[in-house]
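INTERNAL TRANSFER SHEET
From: sequence group
To: structure group
Subject: TumA

Please process the attached sequence and return the structure record in the designated field. Keep the field labels unchanged so the import script can parse them.
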Amino acid sequence: MDIDNLSETVARIQFVADVSLIAHCKEDQLKMALSMISDMAGSIDTSFYQDAIYCQAE
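Return from structure group:
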């Protein structure tokens, strides 16, 4: 995943989260928003960043 696609995906996640908070969603609508966020976050390939995120124990 290149940086442009990553930025776009993160922006979409932020948008859905912000709208969900502002709109005072009902429980089922909030569940749907969280599901959308989960699906989008799951599409991010973190293998490129694993070395930066995790460090090996010595």
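Handover comment: The CA atoms of residues 16 and 33 lie 7 Å apart. The mean pLDDT is 85.
Transfer complete.
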